[in-house]
Amino acid sequence: MRKFLIFTLLIVNVVFAQKELSLQECIEIAMKNNPDVTMASLDVKSAKYGIKGSYSGILPSISTGLNWSHNNQGEREFYVGGVKQIQPETSSNSYGFGVRYDQTLYDGGGWWNQIELAKNNYKTALVSKRQVKQNLTAYVTQQYYSILKAKKLLEVYQTSLKTSQQQLLKTKEMYELGQVAKKDFLKAKVQKGNDELNIIQQERQIKALKNELSTLLGYEDKEFSVQEKDYESPQSYQKEPALQTAMENNIELRSLEFQKKNAQLQYAMAQSNLLPNLSTNLSYSKGGSQADRIYSDFDKFWNTSIGLNLSVPIFQGFSTKTRIQQSKIDYEKYNSRIKGKKLEITQNIKDLIENLNTYNKMLEINQFNLESAQEDLRSAQEMYRLNSATMLEVLDAQANLTQARSNLISTKYDAKIAEVNLKYHLGSL
Questions:
Q1: What predicted TM-score, i.e. pTM, was given to this entire model?
Q2: Homologous superfamily (CATH) for 18-57+85-426
């Protein structure tokens, strides 16, 4: 019976155990399940087909077809030499087969720019997909570290609660022995209650953060937890190399540059509407009043034609000129947008590097503060035991230790989140 119970407990633990996910696993799951990535992939696929379709302007158009018609003519009167004639009702059939070839020879460069536009649209779609992936990676990573931070803070509050419980027991014993006043016992009890409240609030915070990450992962109604093998301190960055990397790789800047190229091509296509258009066509047809004339007597009942068409635009009511002016303005606006984005990137990189350097300095300071707070609490507890310190001093030392632990944990994971933001702007996430 005991073996059966142990086996049952093991099965239950396996079934209901939460899946522990590393950061890399979280990112991979999000890339697989997130609908934004799926839509971006479809946009890339569509743009790739667009390249093939863009060659329609330079390739010929060939069509063929069969036709049949039946005509009825009612009775008619007419005169020949003053003599009235009657033409009776007639009916006739007409059968035909034809092939037609159309080819644009010159359209002012419009076809070439259309092909280049399709290729650039494909590159733009690739950059957009990469941006979606980088955004998702940044969101998942930030949420991952936020959960780790919240879990570590929960551990701090749980440790603080254990200390409060131990202090409450000691204070209760001393109060019952008449060694301390009742107010000391009540203060110790209040501290324990505050620590329990902190734990409740922190557990709620963790649940909210996990729900947000679950949405990013597409993990509806699935239990999971995040894990961290070892904490890696953020690396240091130099301003000038970082700025150069950002200007070369920043995903938002790359996207703007491709959009500028699109605007340039659309401007060129608008200009081509002022130039002549030259096209040619060939056609062959065969048929007559009998169906067999389509597929017999190939030396008879046929017709061919060849045409050359030259169209020169003269005046279109200012519509062409207006489109050219508007497309030129749209193109030139991208110069200002790109300039503004570069200034924004420069400022962001400077601020993020300074922010990250500040966090690294804070890590050293907070580590020292933690060691000092631990010693202060130990000393306060010992002095209180010897009636050389008040309960208020002990509680203050305990609160300072909890705060020191919280500050160190917050700084560690805020530094990692700051590193993620910096890598995003560098285009290296």
A1: 0.77
A2: Outer membrane efflux proteins (OEP) (1.20.1600.10)
